[in-house]
């Protein structure tokens, strides 16, 4: 009865997979590609289907509709998600601003899916009910007050918790939206002293908010970033993280403060209750 979180190596994008204790399947963001596999066409969704044997997703979250978060959208229907969340208040005009012509088909697919998922969520599929997810608590927060000229600041934040372990997924939020979110007492309580933080905006300086990171006070920060990440704030996240022992697939372990998909490949966090009745958190990297 454990939770498994996979932070995929999707180059400069973002995509995460969560398996609940009762084997429900969650995906947050739809980045593609792989540095470690030297495969720009790598699809996390098709990997889940073909290698993990996942035939249907229970919950998909697109934190915000930028290309590096929707790249895998054409494979969305291959796993027939039951529930789909996205920032629905954003207009097509706001989303399509500055979209390149070659990327328009992916956004048209996003809008088609958005129109299709317009029905109420059934009680037995409601992600906000932990009983549906084997006790996994899923909370969501959606900033809305910032200008829509930068839809990074409208990214949905997800916080999952189980057995006293919490992971915070932040999308590409920046200072404006964090200022708004930090005024919310429930948000502050949900993220305070969490165990793992997925760094906002791929670990760039533009997403680093000192008060937010200090509040989260993570044991470990995960950064989903590309090889040529400009204005990286990796060192600042390391300074604000408490440190956690990370295991390597080839053997050995070391205490780390920050891990990145750029250098560490696919990052897997497993947590829950062990045979002694105590909670545990294990993080594995390449």
Radius of gyration: 18 Å
Residue share in β-strands? 15-25%
Order of helices and strands: EEEHEHEHHEEEHHEHEHEEEHEE
- The helix tally amounts to 9
Can you tell me the overall shape?
Answer: globular
Describe the model.
Strands 5-4-3-2-1-14-15-11-12 form a nine-stranded mixed β-sheet, with no helix packed on it. Strands 6-7-8-9-10-13 form a six-stranded mixed β-sheet. The relative contact order is 0.14. It is globular, with a radius of gyration of 18 Å. The chain is of the alpha/beta class and 286 residues long.
Write the layout of secondary structure elements.
Layout lengths: L1 E6 L8 E4 L5 E4 L15 H7 L8 E3 L5 H4 L12 E3 L6 H5 L7 H13 L20 E5 L15 E6 L2 E5 L5 H7 L3 H7 L4 E3 L11 H7 L3 E4 L10 H7 L3 E5 L4 E4 L1 E3 H4 L2 E7 L5 E7 L1
Parallel strand pairs: 3-4, 4-5, 8-9, 9-10, 10-13, 11-15
Antiparallel strand pairs: 1-2, 1-14, 2-3, 6-7, 7-8, 11-12, 14-15
Question: Main traits of this protein?
Answer:
21% helix, nine-stranded mixed sheet, alpha/beta, 9 helices, 24% strand, 286 residues, six-stranded mixed sheet
Short summary of the structure?
The protein is an alpha/beta fold.
């Amino acid at each position: 009865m454990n939770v498994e979180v996979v932070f995929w190596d999707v180059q400069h994008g973002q995509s995460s997979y969560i398996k609940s204790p009762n084997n429900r399947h969650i995906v947050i963001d739809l980045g593609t590609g792989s540095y470690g596999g030297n495969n720009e066409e790598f699809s996390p969704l098709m990997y889940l289907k073909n290698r993990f044997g996942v035939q249907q997703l229970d919950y998909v979250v697109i934190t915000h509709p930028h290309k590096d978060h929707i790249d895998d959208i054409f494979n969305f229907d291959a796993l027939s998600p039951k529930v789909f969340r996205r920032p629905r208040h954003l207009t097509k005009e706001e989303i399509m601003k500055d979209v390149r012509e070659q990327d328009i088909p992916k956004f048209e697919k996003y809008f088609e899916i958005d129109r299709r998922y317009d029905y109420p969520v059934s009680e037995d599929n409601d992600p906000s009910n932990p009983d549906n997810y084997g006790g996994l608590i899923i909370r969501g927060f959606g900033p809305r007050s910032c200008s829509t000229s930068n839809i990074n600041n409208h990214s949905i934040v997800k916080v999952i918790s189980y057995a006293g372990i919490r992971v915070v997924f932040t999308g590409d939020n920046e200072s404006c939206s964090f200022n708004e979110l930090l005024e919310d007492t429930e948000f502050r309580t949900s993220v305070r002293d969490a165990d793992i933080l997925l760094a906002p905006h791929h670990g760039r300086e533009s997403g680093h908010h000192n008060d937010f990171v200090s509040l989260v006070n993570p044991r470990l920060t995960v950064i989903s970033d590309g090889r040529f990440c400009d204005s990286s704030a990796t060192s600042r996240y390391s300074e604000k993280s408490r440190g956690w022992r990370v295991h390597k697939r080839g053997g050995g372990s070391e205490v780390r403060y920050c891990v990145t998909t750029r250098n560490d490949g696919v990052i897997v966090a497993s947590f829950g209750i062990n045979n002694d009745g105590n909670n545990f958190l294990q993080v594995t990297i390449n």
